Amino acid sequence: MSEIILDANEKTPAQNITNNTEKAVIGIALVGTLFKLQHWPGASILLVVGLSTLAMLYFPLGFYFLTNKSEKTVAAASGLFLSFVPLGIMFKVQHWPGASAMLTAAMITVPLVYLALFFMRKKAQPNSLPFYNSMLLRTTFLILILFILAMVRMH
Questions:
Q1: Mean pLDDT on 69-87
Q2: Which residues form the domain of 17?
Q3: Which residue of 36, 90, 135, 151 could cross-link 43, Cys pair, CB 3.0 to 4.6 Å?
Q4: How far does the chain reach from its first CA to its final CA, in angstroms?
């Protein structure tokens, strides 16, 4: 079976589609957050669409970047745990019951995912480094948002 080896900066069409979709969905969630802060109509719909789509996107996200079976397990686990973050944010901002449990689960699992990715990156093959770098960047950003949101008391 032949494998396509890509340059570190070269992306497959699936990676480009995934990255563009992720950026668009994050944009929708940010606009929904702005609407929510201003108490404008449509905020809830934008937040639910943006954050739930982002949660559904994170689980399969890693599979586009990997070819090795052992790394697919890491991608599935990290995608599953990273999908807790947008759901926790959505529950917290919408004042839905269970928000504390969702944020607590994310605050426990996401740093563990970060540590696992960080240590696995050191042993990774050169063609897997772009995956680990992008996942570490996403995880860092999500951890930061999680802890800021956990500190904010919403009424």
A1: 77
A2: 13-151
A3: 36
A4: 57
Cα separation values, 54 from 47, 93, 96, Å: 10, 15, 18
pLDDT of residue 6: 45
Give the integer Cα–Cα distance in Å for 141 and 110.
Answer: 11
Is the separation of the CB atoms in 139 and 82 below 8 Å? yes
15 vs 9, higher pLDDT: 15
80: pLDDT confidence band, cut at 50, 70 and 90?
confident
pLDDT tens digits for range 25-44 = 999 999 998 999 899 999 99
Is there a domain that residue 7 lies in?
no
Q: Is 3 within the bounds of a domain?
A: no
Residue 141 confidence (pLDDT) above 50: yes
2-34: b (≥16 Cβ within 10 Å) or e: eeeeeeeeebeeebeebeeebeebbebbebbbe
Q: What is the rounded CA–CA span in Å between residue 104 and residue 116?
A: 19
Nearest to 142 by CA among 81, 63, 76, 99: 81
